[in-house]
Amino acid sequence: MFSNKDISHFANLETPFYYYDLNLLQDTLNTCAAAAKLYNFHVHYAMKANFNAKVLQSIKAVGFGADCVSGGEVSKAIETGFDKGQIVFAGVGKSDKEINLALDQNIFCFNVESVQELEVINELAAKKGKKASVAIRINPNVDAHTHHNITTGLDENKFGVNSWDLPQCAEMLRASANLEFVGIHFHIGSQITNLDVYKNLCVRVNEFAIWFEERGFAVKVLNVGGGLGIDYHNPDQQIPDFANYFKIFSDFLDIKPGQEVHFELGRALVGQSASLISRVLYVKNGKKKNFVILDAGMTELMRPALYQAYHKIENLTRGNEATLKYDIVGPICESTDCFGKEVEQPESFRGDLYAIRSAGAYGEVMASKYNLRDEIRSVYSEEA
Fold this sequence. Notes:
Lyase, Ornithine Decarboxylase, Chain A, domain 1; 2 domains; eight-stranded parallel β-barrel; lyase; Diaminopimelate decarboxylase; single chain; 11 helices; alpha/beta; TIM Barrel; amino-acid biosynthesis
């Protein structure tokens, strides 16, 4: 919810911009950290969700590590001050340049996604006289029951090593003097709201851990990824149920003495902390459709155009007055530049302020300058 003070502050600012509630962010981080600490679980923040500088500083300060999927993210994590010993590097297509960067920085671990990648990391580490710590990212073929475009753990997905390739992985690990196997890694998808899915994942993690142990490999780390979702329909129910999330893994994982359990959470930590604030440029009322045209578009928030994602949309100026149905659209020269169709809103007018909620994850980071748009700005609660 936005206070009258917030709305008055927004009215004096140039739109569009992302508004970050840093107090909510801190509360979310503290809640997650406390829940993880009960089980001595390790949390790495998935930097792809949001790499706003103030957001990263808050996450680093709470003691989380960083989960990176590019050399640029590895560099950003180190620049921000994340402990190199808590940085993991995943990604199905790591370039030689990116691998060399991570080797030079002595990060904690590479999450390796193919047999060929193992070979490449071993060769590059040998040239530097180093030993690279690696975890094998396994595709467990677990259905996350989420949107098709953001599932990652099925046989049809490009991510991870399929089970039938594991014997070859084991051979490569034994033959590679410059690799140190530390554990196994999984990530089955994003925006997962059915926690029972994670019980199925635990069963598969236990099976694969046994597979490696039976072949003489010590599995020090069980990295179960992330993917915990948020409630886009009720953004004021703001902090996810971290307690039950972590309890599932405590209850269903077969955790051996000395074994570490690692998580890679992104959206759940930052998703509710930001809203996209925009102004109405024009209202077009027709016989079949009414349109509210905002000054923010798919260049500022790509998710609805990319995979029809839902975000709650609110007219901050008009409150709870009689409603009309509008298509809420942006100014970009694309028909897919639409935030929502047939959305009930108060009768809207040029200059009204709109908020598109739950935009803290995969919002600012996916913004573009298509149509030569201005770079999106950020405003913070501490400035209000």
